[in-house]
Amino acid sequence: MNDTHLVEITLSSNAIDSLNEDPYEYVAGDVTIDGVLLEGAGVRLKGKIGSFRTLEEKAAFLLDFERFEPGQEFLGMEKLALNNMVQDPTMIREWMGYRHLREAGVIAPRSAHVQVLLNDELLGLYAHIETYDQRVWMDEQFPSTHQLFEEHLGADLSLVQPVEIGQPEGVLEPVGKYATLDMSATLKVLDLTQPRLGDLFNNWGR
């Protein structure tokens, strides 16, 4: 791990208090990546069931460089996701999985290992995962439609009626500000595949 990158996050006491009160609301902080300073970057915590940790633990972070400084980027990236890997004792599953997907020709984010410091305190080794909702990534991977959606936890998709668990707002949502709301192509795919999926489930266990 000698070639890992270094991410230093500097937050004021007020910013820390705000994150302790609402961990998913962005606060302004300074981020230094391998010696490159990005001032006034957006910083919030990330993670849900299983992976979420507070600032007093090994918190996971989402960094949005242009949240408070429009146009600010780092090597063409507007965001960085820093996963704490608390559910992965090997600390290589994400890196290995995404690498194999890309080698197989499947669209998958790039990843790397980074050391993270918060206010000069070493938090440990993290996985940096390329976020989907970035202009460059969308232009490269989905140039014609800019369509990218993600499902809610515990949800399935149906043309007739969404099957949802505690998600009244809907089963799919567009990812990022560069994703379009046009679901016409998605609905066409569902229209073609759902009869076959229905047959599959009807014949399950026969």
The string of secondary-structure elements, in order, is EHEEEEHEEHEEH
Q: Per DSSP, what share of the residues sits in E-state strands of 2 or more residues?
A: 25-35%
What is the number of helices? 4
Count of strand segments = 9
Distance between the termini: 51 Å
Please give the largest β-sheet.
7 strands, mixed, barrel
Radius of gyration: 19 Å
Structural commentary:
The chain has 206 residues and is an alpha+beta fold. It has four helices and nine strands; from the N terminus they run E-H-E-E-E-E-H-E-E-H-E-E-H. The strands form two sheets. The chain has a seven-stranded mixed beta barrel. It has a two-stranded antiparallel sheet with strand order 8-9. Strand 6 and strand 7 form a beta hairpin. It is globular and about 55 Å long.
